[in-house]
């Protein structure tokens, strides 16, 4: 596969899921990705852990800042930094948790702009999923399992269709790899 690379499997993600279950108010505190006209992300929910200080700043060079969810979800810390070490990342960019509900999707799109070009190593830590949730990049498709970590080429057309009966939740970690 040229657009997907599994870099780990069998990661214990239950502590993150427990923290998420106990704090439903964290979802959609920042709605720009969900509510911007024309966004492919209307059907999903997210939690911003690390992001630009503002939407305007996102598309120009910046250092992302930690959002309050970072303190509220301490179990994500070892996952973030272990994943960075695994790919020998030199910089950490945006970090999000996204949830696509059963029968939901993220529409086809290409990530463009400063952030996806500079942070050229996008990792997905699968927290929960099902075999009917398919991630597509161009002509390749993968059903990801909980506890897997995948590197994805998000500069190519991609989408996710969750045709299953359960949510698909991922921790997304944007890194710079030299």
Textual characterization of the structure:
The chain is α+β, with helices and mostly antiparallel strands. It has a domain of 120 residues. It has six helices and eleven strands. A seven-stranded antiparallel beta sheet has the order 1-9-6-11-4-2-3. It has a four-stranded antiparallel beta sheet with strand order 5-10-7-8, with no helix packed on it. The protein is globular.
Summed over residues and divided by their number, the pLDDT gives a mean of 96
Structural class determined from secondary elements: alpha+beta
Largest sheet: 7 strands, antiparallel
Give the C-alpha Rg.
15 Å
Number of strands: 11
Q: State the end-to-end CA separation.
A: 21 Å
Order of helices and strands: EHHEHEHHEEHEEEEEE
Shape field: globular
Strand order of the largest sheet: 1-9-6-11-4-2-3
Uncertain runs are none
Beta-strand percentage range: 35-45%
Helix content: 10-25%
Compute the number of helices: 6
List the helices and strands and how they pair.
Blueprint: E1 4-8, H1 14-22, H2 32-35, E2 45-51, H3 55-58, E3 65-66, H4 68-72, H5 76-86, E4 91-100, E5 105-109, H6 114-118, E6 121-128, E7 133-137, E8 140-142, E9 149-152, E10 158-162, E11 168-176
Antiparallel strand pairs: 1-9, 2-3, 2-4, 4-11, 5-10, 6-9, 6-11, 7-8, 7-10
């Amino acid at each position: 596969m040229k657009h997907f690379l599994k870099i780990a499997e069998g990661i214990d993600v239950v502590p993150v899921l427990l923290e998420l279950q106990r704090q439903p108010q964290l979802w959609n505190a920042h709605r720009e990705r969900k509510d911007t006209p024309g966004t492919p992300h209307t059907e999903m929910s997210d939690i911003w852990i690390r992001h630009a200080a503002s939407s305007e700043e996102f598309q120009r060079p910046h250092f992302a800042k930690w959002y309050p969810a970072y303190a509220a979800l301490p179990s994500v810390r070892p996952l973030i930094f272990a994943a960075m070490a695994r790919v020998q990342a030199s910089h950490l960019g945006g970090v999000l948790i996204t949830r696509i509900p059963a029968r939901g999707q993220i529409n086809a799109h290409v990530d463009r702009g400063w952030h996806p070009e500079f942070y050229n190593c996008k990792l997905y830590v699968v927290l929960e999923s099902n075999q009917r949730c398919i991630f597509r990049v161009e002509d390749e498709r993968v059903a990801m399992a909980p506890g897997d970590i995948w590197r994805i080429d998000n500069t190519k057309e991609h989408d996710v269709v969750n045709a299953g009966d359960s949510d698909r939740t991922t921790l997304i970690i944007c890194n710079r790899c030299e």
